[in-house]
Design brief:
35 helices, 7-stranded parallel beta sheet, Rossmann fold, 11% strand, 51% helix, 5 domains
Length: 725
């Protein structure tokens, strides 16, 4: 195509765009002139157009090798929407029957089809190879090309067979495209596809609109996620989990908490999975909870947040998945929850795999841990990983830049590290160097006699974490290089050797002092669990009034812990009240109305933001134990026999029954009480509980005298059930 205007006209008439984005035009011209082309472009940069437009303009059919059936369908639908002819794009994969495949072939032979999407597995079939050898092919496009590399985050062995298959079909220009590749992965792809001489078009991996944040994964992670989603109500988001089971559980938990969410993973039946994907694309649901299978090539530009419930296996996977946020250059929040335990779990999963694969996996996990634990700019770390230098000191759009940590000069430590790497002839990885410096006398250290080195144990005081931080920063600043091909062996660069001759300031960012952090955590804890003293006092007064009217001790209505919970979470509906500890539906219906009215008034008058709005409702799991205990008591089963049949001590059975009656359920254990306790003692204890303002067992035993703890507890259960419920 001779000039730029004609190409822009075709872009406008075929796709409706007025201008090309970034390198698109240069890439298209390169492939149309018959040259192999390698495209590295972040998600949302417009990769697909780089082979779709040439395919429409060139003679013949373009063969697009793509890894996912869902992705193919998505792309074919998109192409058909641009054309009047449905046959313009087709796919061949395992989801098609023979009649459908015959139709595809007929359209290709008639010259209607400009793009044919195939899975690498389909490409290996003899009948497909035979068919493709006899048609005019314009180009081969290898989409999601990182799947070729075992260093990539989504390695697919079938992808490594693509080159021999192309040779069999016929030599045509190849365009390989990926949204994520480290220099190592890029080289691996080019080598494997036999396109070392390809023109490489690399767009910046920086997505300025994306905000990166890593939070420690605590027991409150579900609560944090719900709070976050509620603060972004009505916006689309993706939550990634590593296991299918967790995906199902998380989607269910979100639904129970009033959030429109659906699961998506490879274990679901294809129809449901496709329906769930469409529901997300059509905005019938706000959140999709998924394994990494979701999102490759999904064309939804307004995903506003991507949450990683589990940290991914590699930084490439993380970058690819976060890249699905804010593809329209609008808001994109990338929030990951990190726990070192998760990485240990992932490492365990690798056991049993070939040693080389385990080494690669471990190295990728170390990079992920380094990113998650770092206090430096997250954007800088990510871009460095992809071989791109980020010049700014503060990106202003990640958690570490918005809340900068303390910096210290670590030039002496760096010198010691560089000396040690050179002393061991640059043949070891980070963990070995750290072991030498902190003085860990491992089997490896002893066998190489590295415990005899001058620097052995010289940095024990600084510790492993600090040394890891210095090594990571030295890699980013170019004093060290890591030989990924050799599983991460450290080499000192020319800049590193110059630093040793003439050291200069070398600042590293450190996490706060652990003592300060503990103090912060304690302060936060005391705030979150704080009872509103005014509310608590008002609730106690109301309880006292009701107890007088009904002539019942206050604790029979609600116990203090229940009032404390009400004064912390401010329930204002009957459903919320029933979720308060010690309040069942019976109690809520009997006494709840006045308490709810009081709480609602207090909340409105004082403009209180209720933590109840942020409370996580768990998926209903009615205790089978409690239900079966109630049924057994209805049948008048001897309580000692009941305890034995449930594998409980008698005291544990009483704990269960107390929980049942204190939450407002009425049960009748008189048949057992009257059999095992003297009639007069029952009467004395009932009188005591009627008059007393306390339900303390110890006080009852002291006042009534000559009775056991179990007797007191049994009569107390009888009293609360008969008078309170």
């Amino acid at each position: 195509m001779s000039n730029s205007n004609e190409l822009v006209e075709k872009l406008k008439s075929c796709f409706g765009f007025d201008t090309f984005k970034g390198n698109q035009e240069a890439i298209i011209r390169n492939i149309m002139s018959g040259k192999d082309t390698f495209v590295l472009m972040p998600t949302g940069g417009g990769k697909s157009l780089c082979y779709q437009l040439p395919a429409l303009l060139m003679e013949g059919t373009a063969i697009v090798i793509s890894p996912l059936i869902a992705l193919m369908k998505n792309q074919v639908d998109a192409m058909r929407s641009f054309s009047e002819e449905d046959g313009v794009a087709h796919f061949i994969n395992s989801s098609l029957n023979k009649a459908a495949i015959d139709q595809v072939r007929a359209d290709i032979l008639e010259g209607k089809t400009k793009l044919l999407y195939v899975a690498p597995e389909s490409l290996t079939k003899v009948e497909n190879i035979e068919f493709l050898r006899n048609i005019k092919i314009s180009l081969f496009a290898v989409d999601e090309a990182h799947c070729i590399s075992e260093w990539g985050h989504d390695f697919r062995p079938e992808y490594r067979k693509i080159r021999p298959l192309i040779n069999e079909i016929g030599r045509m220009p190849i365009i390989a495209l990926t949204a994520t590749a480290t220099p190592k992965v890029q080289h691996d792809i080019q080598k494997n596809l036999g396109m070392i001489d390809a023109t490489v078009f690399k767009s910046s991996f920086n997505r300025p609109n994306l905000y990166y944040e890593v939070r420690p994964k605590t027991n409150d992670v579900d609560k944090e996620i719900i709070k976050f989603i509620r603060n972004h109500e009505g916006k689309s988001g993706i939550i990634y989990c590593l296991s299918r089971k967790k995906v199902e559980k998380m989607a269910e938990m979100l639904c129970v908490n009033g959030i429109k969410a659906l699961p998506y993973h490879a274990g679901m039946d294809p129809v449901t999975r496709s329906q769930n994907q469409d529901a997300f694309l059509m905005e019938q649901v706000d959140v999709i909870v998924a394994t990494i299978a979701f999102g490759m090539g999904i064309d939804k530009s307004d995903v506003r947040y991507v949450i990683h419930y589990d940290i991914p296996k590699s930084l490439e996977g993380y970058y690819q998945e976060t890249g699905r946020a804010g593809r329209d250059d609008g808001e994109g929040i990338c929030l990951a929850f990190y726990s070192n335990k998760d990485l240990q779990k992932l490492e365990k999963f690798m056991q049993g795999k070939p040693v080389a694969e385990q080494e690669i996996g471990k190295e990728l996990l170390l990079e992920t841990a380094a990113y998650a634990e770092s206090a430096d700019c997250r954007r800088k770390l990510l871009l460095h990983y992809f071989g791109e230098a980020y010049q700014e000191d503060n990106c202003g759009n990640c958690d570490n830049c918005l809340n900068p940590k303390k910096q210290i000069d670590a030039s002496e430590l760096l010198s010691t590290i560089l000396d040690t790497i050179l002393a061991v002839k640059e043949k070891f990885k980070t963990d070995h160097i750290v072991d030498i410096l902190v003085g860990n006398n491992t089997a490896d250290i002893a066998s190489y006699q590295h415990d005899e080195l001058e620097t052995f144990g010289s940095c024990a005081e600084e510790g492993e974490k600090m040394l890891g931080t210095v090594i990571r920063k030295a890699l980013i600043d170019g004093y060290l290089d890591k030989e990924i091909e050799n599983y991460g062996i450290l080499k000192v660069t020319a800049a590193g050797k110059a630093f040793l001759k003439k050291p200069k300031e070398f600042k590293i960012t450190v996490q706060g002092d652990p003592e300060d952090m503990d103090e912060d955590i304690q302060i936060q804890g005391s705030i979150t669990s704080a009872v509103d003293p005014v509310m608590f006092s008002m609730l106690k007064n109301l309880r006292k009034q009701i107890s007088k009217q009904l002539n019942l001790p206050p604790y029979v209505i609600f116990q203090d812990p229940s009032l404390e919970a009400m004064a912390t979470t401010y329930p204002i509906t009957m459903e919320e009240l029933q979720n308060i500890p010690g309040v069942g539906s019976g109690k809520a219906k009997r006494y709840g109305k006045e308490f709810l009215a009081l709480i609602k008034r207090h909340v409105e008058e004082n403009e209180i933001e209720r933590p109840e709005d942020l409370r996580v409702r768990t998926v209903a799991n009615k205790s089978k134990m409690k239900v079966s205990i109630i049924q057994a008591i209805d049948r008048k089963v001897d309580l000692e026999d009941l305890a034995q049949s449930k594998g409980l001590s008698f005291g544990e059975l009483l704990d269960e029954i107390e929980a049942i009656v204190y939450s407002g359920t009425k049960i009748n254990i008189s048949y057992f009480v009257e059999e095992v306790i003297d009639e007069d003692r029952i009467a004395d204890l009932l009188d005591y509980f009627r008059e007393s303002s306390s339900d303390s067992v110890d006080e009852a035993m002291e006042v009534v005298g000559d009775c056991s703890e179990e007797e007191v507890r049994l009569v107390r259960i009888k009293f609360i059930s008969e008078y309170g419920n």
